[in-house]
């Protein structure tokens, strides 16, 4: 669970003080109606119980909203948050952070695969991608009942990206680490194992990642969706980020040339 912004009382703290931050949108300021739910602690306000569409509408695109620990999010609020790329984290008030870069692009064709451990999460992410207007391509496996090896499916996604048949790739295994290692062996692939929205934005903006790997053992559907939205809604950074990315690809190209020269030399000697 993400931590509350600096200066706010963390969830579970003994203090009941509500901290007001510049630009923060507190739930009570939104005038949310409704009575406290059954089983609420004595004195717990109704405003802290319900997160409605109005709160999400007030947030910037791609921002994070800090909500009370026991808040209930209405279906309309969830839908609007998904459309705007807004993510929810636990805290005392809602402070929109700086929005991520706007990405004006056509729907991305995205290769998606997993191992057996990541199958269930992968199956849940594909409908989300379609709702976002993307074009996911499921490369398997079809079931979680049979054990498979993550390198087989990670390499399938990586090759689709490397050879230009898709725009991006997503791979889900238990931790996301092994699949990232496999994918990064394929030329032109820049795979990043991301575990929260911030790491996903960094992977795209700073590192120009074109493959996202997720760990089903560390992320539930809600957390994975936050990562996914951040990854897809963040543009590749220009300037110093582009320059450094070029250097990364130059390292790969140099090793490929060295291997090719060594192979040609060996063939000539044979």
Index terms:
270 residues, alpha/beta, Ribose 5-phosphate Isomerase B, Chain: A, 5-stranded parallel sheet, 8 helices, 9 strands, disordered N terminus
Write the layout of secondary structure elements.
Blueprint: E1 50-51, H1 53-57, E2 64-67, E3 72-73, H2 75-84, E4 87-90, E5 109-114, H3 119-131, E6 135-138, H4 150-162, E7 168-173, H5 177-183, E8 191-193, H6 197-205, E9 211-215, H7 221-232, H8 240-269
Walk me through this protein's architecture:
This protein has two domains: 1-99, no CATH class; 109-232, Ribose 5-phosphate Isomerase B, Chain: A. Helices cover 37% and strands 13% of the residues. The chain has helices spanning 53-57, 75-84, 119-131, 150-162, 177-183, 197-205, 221-232, 240-269, and strands at 50-51, 64-67, 72-73, 87-90, 109-114, 135-138, 168-173, 191-193, 211-215. It has a five-stranded parallel β-sheet, sandwiched between helices. Strands 1-3 form a two-stranded parallel ribbon. Strands 2-4 form a two-stranded parallel sheet. Helix 4 crosses helix 5. Mean pLDDT is 77; it is low at 1-48 and 92-104.
The total count of helices amounts to: 8
Mean pLDDT: 77
The arrangement of helices and strands along the chain is EHEEHEEHEHEHEHEHH
Looking at this structure, what is the CATH superfamily of the largest domain? Answer: Sugar-phosphate isomerase, RpiB/LacA/LacB
**Sheet with the most strands, sense and barrel status:** 5 strands, parallel
Envelope shape: globular
The proportion of residues in beta strands is 5-15%
Overall CATH class of the largest domain = Alpha Beta
User: What is the share of helical residues?
Assistant: 25-40%
Would you identify the CATH architecture of the largest domain? 3-Layer(aba) Sandwich
């Amino acid at each position: 669970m993400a931590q509350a912004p600096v200066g706010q009382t963390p969830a579970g703290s003994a203090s009941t003080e509500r901290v007001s931050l510049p630009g923060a949108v507190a739930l009570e300021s939104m005038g949310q109606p409704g009575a406290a739910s059954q089983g609420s602690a004595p004195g717990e306000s109704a405003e802290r119980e319900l997160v409605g569409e109005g709160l999400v509408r007030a947030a910037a695109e791609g921002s994070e909203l800090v909500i009370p620990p026991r808040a209930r999010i209405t279906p309309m609020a969830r839908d609007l948050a998904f459309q705007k790329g807004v993510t929810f984290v636990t805290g005392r008030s809602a402070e929109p952070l700086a929005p991520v870069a706007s990405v004006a692009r056509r729907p991305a064709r995205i290769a998606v695969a997993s191992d057996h451990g990541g199958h269930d999460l992968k199956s849940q992410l594909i409908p989300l991608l379609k709702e976002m207007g993307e074009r996911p391509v499921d490369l398997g496996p079809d079931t979680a009942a049979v054990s498979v090896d993550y390198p087989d499916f990670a390499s399938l996604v990586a090759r689709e990206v490397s050879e230009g048949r898709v725009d991006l790739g997503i791979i889900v295994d238990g931790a996301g680490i092994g699949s990232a290692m496999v994918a990064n062996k394929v030329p032109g692939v820049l795979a990043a194992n991301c575990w929260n929205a911030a790491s996903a934005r960094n992977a795209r903006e700073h590192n120009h990642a074109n493959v996202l790997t997720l760990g089903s053992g560390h992320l539930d559907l809600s957390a994975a969706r936050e990562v996914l939205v951040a990854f897809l809604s963040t543009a590749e950074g220009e300037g110093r980020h582009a320059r450094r990315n070029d250097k990364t690809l130059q390292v790969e190209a140099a090793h490929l040339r060295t291997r090719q020269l060594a192979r040609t030399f060996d063939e000539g000697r044979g």
